[in-house]
Design brief:
260 residues, Glutaredoxin, 2 domains
Length: 260
């Protein structure tokens, strides 16, 4: 349902005027489903054991095991709109500064919310945004590039093992055309999502994939980095630790992508 304006003309003695009123678009509330941390509010009935819901619940264990993080029980509220029009109307009305996207993750001091609509790519969208939710319950204050890189890693179906094929294709082609080289310190300087290009998302995923799926030593390096952030709220930039151990890490990343 699109947000709309209704022109109401009022006639009273000695005065006639027109007022604009706007119908308020509300969050989905017709149906609610609770599965572990997820509280799913939807405009339509969603079976308790819908295969996408089961996958989202299982994704928490994937995140915990791969990153060696403790399980959290903090609720993550997921709001599923039945149409893109109603979703877009809600966003335009309540979050007009948001960019044009199919789904969002929002964090406040007291809540973790995901907004999305039921469309052809809802599985990918929910895997990505719910991963943000899981991460933020376990590791507050994640650097932007790492937050997005992990979400891009876990947004693919579980059977893909973290391989985001479109990202891999983009980066390998960019290397072939000699218009991209990995630069983790540059990624670490990005602080707002609007600063990130699609290639930045792809590179963030690539660094995460290298760290998690190449050697046990690199995986442990990432796990220890996340543990430090979780325990102290801060840590040295990961690039400093990685490049100290592997000065040729950028070249190793290219080789890793080409070998996939």
């Amino acid at each position: 349902m699109r947000a709309w304006k209704l022109l109401i003309c009022l006639a009273v003695p000695l005065l006639a005027g027109c007022l604009f009123t706007r119908k308020v678009v509300t969050l989905p509330a017709s149906n609610a489903l609770v599965r572990d941390q997820l509280v799913i509010h939807s405009d339509f009935r969603l079976p308790r054991h819908h295969r996408l819901v089961d996958e989202l619940v299982a994704r928490r264990n994937d995140v915990v095991e791969r990153l060696r993080l403790p399980v959290s029980d903090e609720p993550i509220h997921v709001y599923l709109f039945d149409t893109p029009e109603r979703f877009q109307a809600f966003v335009a009305q309540h979050h007009p500064d948001f960019p044009d996207r199919r789904a969002f993750f929002l964090e406040s001091d007291t809540r973790l919310d995901v907004y999305a609509y039921w469309g052809d790519r809802v599985a990918e969208d929910l895997r990505h945004e719910v991963t943000h939710g899981y991460l933020h319950t376990m590791v507050p204050h994640l650097p932007l590039w790492l937050d997005e890189g992990l979400a891009e890693y876990f947004e693919v179906p579980r059977s893909e093992g973290g391989l985001n094929a479109p990202h891999r294709t983009m980066l390998v082609q960019a290397v072939h055309e000699r218009n991209w080289q990995p630069d983790l310190p540059r990624l670490e300087r990005l602080t707002a999502p609007f600063e990130m290009t699609q290639q930045d998302y792809a590179e963030s995923w690539a660094w995460v994939h290298l760290l998690l799926d190449s050697t046990p030593q690199r995986r442990e390096l990432l796990q220890n980095h996340l543990a430090r952030i979780r325990m102290t709220g801060t840590a040295l930039p990961l690039s400093q630790v990685l490049l100290a151990a592997e000065p040729q890490a950028a070249q190793h990343l290219i080789a890793h992508l080409q070998a996939l």
